[in-house]
Amino acid sequence: MEPEELAWKEYQRFEDDFLDICEYVQLANEHRNVYSYKLMNLLVAIGVEFDSVGNALLTKWLEKQVIQDQSLVRKLTNKQTKRDFFNMGDYRETFECPSFSASTRTVTVNRLNLILKPFHPAPQSGQSLQWWAAFTSLKHDRIANFITSATIDHVLHGLAALLLTNIFFRKDRDTVGVPGLEPSRLFSINFLQVQTRTMGVMNTTYRITAS
Questions:
Q1: According to the model, what pLDDT value does residue 199 have?
Q2: Could you tell me the CA-to-CA distances from 6 to 3, 52, 128, 168, 204 in Å, in that order?
Q3: For residue 206, which phi and psi values (nearest 5 degrees)?
Q4: Any bridge partners for residue 107, and if so which?
Q5: Max Cα-Cα span within the chain
Q6: Of 17, 131, 176, 196, whose CB neighbour count within 10 A is largest?
Q7: How far apart are CA 92 and CA 206, in angstroms?
Q8: Which strand ranges, in their side-by-side order, compose the sheet holding 107-109?
Q9: Is pLDDT of 98 > 90?
């Protein structure tokens, strides 16, 4: 199985797990701070998977010479040479490249009509991403941070970030192919426009736009 397909299947599994939780706790704005052990375990799994897909994406972009900022290329290549893993700082800096423009990208939570920016603020702000900070707090001290970090809101932002990263992991120039009729049952993505749909094999090709 290709790495992009494996990563996509993992994202879909996490989304299904979250929607299963929503059968017991209704997905509603007044429940966004609800916390649970299942949400905690899901957010930790999402964070670990995001790190894996992020490393694979940066490696792919370096190989295909997608990154135009040569100082950033040298920095990332130096890490590869030393066999260091990429980290969130590397992802955020690289994802601000024009082919991704991560901090400006939005998704909409369909049931809530809620717009999320999972990579906002931009890395130049010096601020951390709240969902990632919640993940790392649970990873290092779950007992102390359980109530404030293991929430529906943080899981939603983490899932949105993982979905966007998977979309750009799969992209070829300005298009991305998705197995199925929609990339997500949970989110709508405003910068994807349908190009072709093959109903028999349930594949959809989208064009990535600037918005």
A1: 79
A2: 5, 11, 28, 14, 18
A3: -115, 150
A4: 116, 189
A5: 50
A6: 131
A7: 24
A8: 114-116, 107-109, 187-189
A9: no
Under the banding of pLDDT at 50, 70 and 90, the label for residue 200 is confident
The answer to whether the beta carbons of residues 40 and 138 sit under 8 Å apart is yes
Q: Which residue has the tokens 């909409």?
A: 108
Percentages (nearest 5) of helix, strand, coil residues in the chain: 55, 15, 30
Residue 137's contacts (CB-CB under 8 Å, 6 or more residues apart) are: 144, 145, 148, 149
Residues 162 and 186 sit within 8 Å (Cβ to Cβ): no
Residues 100 and 69: their CA atoms lie apart, in Å, by: 13
Q: What is the mean pLDDT of residues 85-109?
A: 94
pTM, two decimal places: 0.96
Residue 88 CA to chain centroid, in angstroms?
Answer: 12
Which residues, at least 6 apart from 150, have a Cβ–Cβ distance to it below 8 Å?
35, 36, 37, 39, 40, 43, 134, 138, 142
